[in-house]
Automatic annotation (TrEMBL):
Residues 68-128 form the Putative restriction endonuclease domain. This is Putative restriction endonuclease domain-containing protein. It comes from the Bacteria. Transmembrane segments: none annotated.
Amino acid sequence: MNPLLRIDPADPYPESDGAPMADNTLQFDWIVKIKENLEILFADRPDVFVAGDLFWYPVPDRHIIGPMAPDAMVAFGRPKGPRRSYRQWEEDGIAPQVVFEVLSPSNSAKDLRDQLEFYDTYGVEGVLPVRLHEIPSLAR
């Protein structure tokens, strides 16, 4: 379902679409592990922003292109600190350079292609899809 259908039209930059962050506990665990390990990796870098499941708005008008919420993202050259959403035009035009997507069995090939196209269009340099359901020791 299109996440924009669940967003209040009166809110210019909503923080949530009401959808769950993960489809299952394994996916949730790995999203958290990746995000928290990125925080640890860049703990001494005040110029590296790390977030998980945060709406990223690449352009000011969300009716032109809606937000994306990467499972984890890293933006170099941006200060740490809380944000309600990542608004690229308020972040010196800097897109997250690295994005992680922890895929579940319900993610289709088209879903991944659409995400990759979005990330490529708006300046992400590296996308790391994690296919947990294809790792035999994790598949249950």
